[in-house]
Amino acid sequence: MFTSLDDGKDVSTVKALFVYNFTKYIEWNQHNLQQKFKIGVMGQSDVKDKLVLILKGKKLYNREIEIIEIKNIDEITGCQILYISKNESDKLKQVVDRFAQSELLIVTEDKNMAAKGSCINIVEKEQKMRFEMNDSAIKKAGLKVANQLYELAIIVR
Q: Where exactly are the structural domains of the chain?
């Protein structure tokens, strides 16, 4: 699951597609899912608008999807995915300290964020969008990840 930046898609669309595709390979406990599958976006990012477009009318785990803008850490409660934009990378430690064991998939887009505790970090390498996965962060979050996703990822420990 990597995408060349030469195929006409803008970076925000590619990142939003990555987030959506991650949901196909990651499993949350059904009893922890609320009425809606919530994806929070922290910080200024076109990814939020792209997620709204891509996920319109779709369901995850037979639940409607809600994309919310996160302005402060208290608003993360109840989210299954948190996308932290580059301009909010400095909040990662606070988020990890508070939500590391709450089945929250933390997705970031800045250098070395997987090594600093995010579950998945979307990066650009050799004109392609790729993603790094922090196996220990995913296990600590209590999420189950399909082997296919591990095979496509750059593993960070």
A: 3-156
